[in-house]
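Example record

The entry below shows one chain as it appears in the dataset: sequence first, then C-alpha cells.
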Amino acid sequence: TRHPNQSLVMLGPGVGTDALQYQRHGTTVTVCVTPADAPALVRRNFDLRGLSVKVVHTGADLTLPFDRGAFDLGYVNLLHAPPADLPRAVTELYRVLKPGGKVFALAPARFDAGFWQHLLVPFRRWYRSPVGWTPAPRYSGPALKQVFAPFAEHRVAKRHLRRSELPHLWRALPLAALERVMGRVLVLRAFKPVAAALEGVAVDPAA
C-alpha cells in the first residue's frame, strides 16, 4: 500500500502472489522470469483475479533488458529458487533502480525456529519442526546485508512464524516477540544511494 504509482521489477516471482498484491495497490509490476521460474502460473494467478502483469524473460544469466534507473523499486525472492548467480542479480537490480530507489529481499533465516529447537529442545521427535521447509541457502542478517552491499541503509527483520511450529511450552509466549528472534524469513530493505546519480558523471576539478 505504500508504493502507488511507482514501478517495481521483481526477480523470483514464485506463482506471483506478492506481485499480485503490489499490482492491486497501484504499483506497476514487471516480473522477470528465468527458465527455472513458472511464468504460466504467474499469468494464471493474475488472470483469475482480472488483472494483467508484464512478464519479461531474462534468461539464466539474469541480464535485465532495462535501462539504468528504469524502476523505483526492486524485489528479489530467495526463499525457494534463488538466482544461480546472486551477485550478478544484485548488480543488475542496482543498475536498473533509480538513485534513491528501494530494494526488498526475502531470504530463509539461518537462526529460525528450527535452529533454536534443535539447539535447545532434546526430544526432537515430539514436535513439528520447520527444518527443511526450503532447500535454499539460509542467511544471517549480516550475511544478507553483505550480499546487498552495493545498497545503503540496510534494515533486516525476521518474519513468518506459526505457533504450530513451536514446542508446546513456547506457544504461550507472545508470537510477535518470538517472530523477531526465530522467524523463518528475513526481510531486507535497503536503498540505492542518491549519490549514485553521479556515477559516470565527469567532475570539473576547478569547480
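Notes for this example: The radius of gyration is 19 Å. Residues 201-207 have pLDDT under 50 and may be disordered.
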